[in-house]
From TrEMBL:
Domain FAD-binding FR-type as annotated: residue spans: 217-318
Protein name in UniProt: Ferric reductase-like transmembrane domain-containing protein
Pfam assignment, any one: FAD_binding_8
PANTHER family, alphabetized: 1,2-PHENYLACETYL-COA EPOXIDASE, SUBUNIT E (PTHR47354:SF8), NADH OXIDOREDUCTASE HCR (PTHR47354)
Organism, as annotated: Actinotalea soli
Transmembrane segments annotated in the record for this chain: 12-42, 54-74, 95-112, 132-150, 162-179, 194-212, 325-345
Length: 452
């Protein structure tokens, strides 16, 4: 579990983070091409033509990449710390296309160079090595298609997640069975040992994601203490630890939350922690009604069991120290910013903060009273931008754009650290406006409430 990033300068943190990132990347490359090198250099099977060798090589690389996907999504703190979970999940999505190309190249080259092999597609007559191969590739195609077109196929997130995990297991296990059945590359002590280690590692990663992590959460349960309505169809949900000392987190981080009797439930949702990092013994979440699960949050009863997996994320002022902080927020994007402001206030931090908040109407501005209260404890300026302003409103109207920023950023804006959280059109527009005004990109940090 990641700890709050307190202490150490941000430069030192940056160097460590870069070194950690480079080390993980090298390890990734090694594991990806390692099995291929051992398989083809140790003792190439006799009488195989070059195209077959190339196709097998590509298949091995693709399989290693797919197996490593379990490590990528395992939410290991050490892997996520240098990059942030969202960047890691982005990598997971994009690298899966590369892996798919490698995997598909394997049968494609064989069918083009040896058309008689197309017979293996007749699964009734084909042998088991062919059946496992076809099963693995077919499962991979369905997995990728259901991920790209999840919304168009109207697959509920929870259904998709179970399908995704199951198909991923089928892809990898069937591919390993295919290699075992083919036999060419798993004869001899070293190659067989490598195959066994690789298989065991992939299965261990699977068990870690679906069994070990939920089991760990089970030993650290939480309990809902209150559920309070907030503005903008949002709810403040407070949890207290049951029998343990709570969660240490950096302000701005998030956790995966499961409400109910078991952490093995599929209904696990990511929410930013909105409370102060100085109070790890009780955490608050600010949850807006968005869909089937969040619309029922108001029905949660005090005393309901909850499980937290976290903290995750790198969206925290602690990782990006600066002389002044600017938070640009849309709607419930205020949640991680509240945590940062509350923590700054509890730590009696004197650095100036500016919050620019975009919301549809004045009545729907979530946590505006809390922000008002924080103005008394911090050097804090709050600028509201309303799409539909009430009569007599003298503040900003419309959307947050370059003109709004020009009116409020003030002096020294290039040296400020920016934290953006809200709908993508807003964060895109603000990022572009800041870039146009010469704010260095490494001063701008983003949290998107979309992972899939
Ligand atoms: C890092 C992060 C922090 C977040 N913090 C907050 C917060 O502080 N407050 C808040 O109100 N919302 C937050 N969200 C968004 C919140 O997770 C979704 O609104 C919620 O999961 C939607 O669930 P639903 O079933 O009500 O809606 P649905 O209509 O089922 O889903 C709406 C969309 O939310 C996404 N989603 C749904 N379920 C999940 C899930 N289990 N895991 C990941 N994504 C999912 C999918 O893209 C889906 O299309 C955060 C999201 C992320 C990624």
């Amino acid at each position: 579990m990641a700890q709050a990033a307190g202490g150490g300068s941000s430069r030192a943190t940056g160097v460590g983070v870069a070194a950690g990132g480079a080390a993980w990347f090298m390890l990734y490359l090694l594991v990806t091409v390692g099995p291929l090198l051992v398989a083809v250099t140790a003792n190439p099977p006799p009488g195989r033509d070059l195209w077959t060798e190339i196709s097998v090589g590509l298949g091995f690389v693709g399989l290693s990449m797919l197996g490593l996907q379990f490590a990528v999504v395992s939410r290991f703190s050490a892997v996520n710390a240098p990059f942030g979970l969202d960047a890691v999940l982005q990598f997971h999505r994009e690298i899966s296309y590369v892996a798919m190309v490698f995997v598909l190249a394997h049968p494609t080259i064989i069918f083009v160079t040896q058309p008689e092999m197309l017979e293996v597609l007749n699964l009734v007559e084909a042998d088991w090595q062919a059946r496992f191969g076809v099963l693995s590739v077919a499962a991979l195609l369905v997995l990728v298609a259901t991920s790209i077109w999840r919304r168009r196929l109207r697959l509920r997130y929870e259904v998709w997640r179970v399908l995704h995990g199951s198909l991923a297991a089928v892809v990898v296990v069937a591919a390993l069975a295919h290699i075992e059945q083919v036999g060419y590359y798993v004869d001899g002590f070293w190659k067989r040992s490598l195959w066994i280690v690789m298989s065991a590692a992939f299965v261990t990663l699977l068990v870690n994601v679906y069994v070990v992590q939920p089991w760990r959460e089970r030993r650290r349960p939480w309990e809902v203490t209150s559920v309070t309505p907030a503005r903008g169809s949002s709810w403040t949900v407070e949890l207290r630890p049951v029998g343990h000392d709570g969660l240490r987190f950096a302000p701005g981080q998030f956790a995966w939350v499961t409400f109910g009797r078991s952490p093995f439930a599929v209904r696990e949702h990511p929410f930013s922690i909105a409370s102060s990092a100085e109070e790890p013994g009780a955490v608050q979440f600010a949850i807006a009604e968005a869909g089937d699960f969040t619309s029922t949050v108001g029905d949660l009863e005090p005393g309901t069991r909850a499980y937290l997996d976290g903290p995750y994320g790198v969206f925290s002022y602690e990782r990006h120290e600066g002389p002044r902080f600017v938070f640009v927020v849309g709607g419930i994007g205020i949640a991680p910013v509240l945590s940062m402001l509350r923590t700054l206030a509890d730590r009696q931090d004197a650095r100036p903060c500016l919050v620019v908040l975009g919301n549809p109407t004045w009545e729907e501005v979530p946590y505006r009273e809390e922000l008002e209260e924080l103005r008394g404890r911090l050097d804090l300026t709050v600028v509201h931008v309303l799409e539909d302003a009430p009569e007599g409103w003298e503040g900003e109207t419309g959307f947050i754009d370059g003109d709004v920023l020009d009116r409020h950023l003030g002096e020294g804006y290039e040296r400020s650290r920016y934290f953006l959280c809200g709908p993508v059109p807003m964060t895109d527009a603000v990022q572009a406006a800041l870039a146009e005004r010469g704010v260095p990109t490494d001063h701008v940090h983003l949290e998107l409430f979309e992972l899939v």
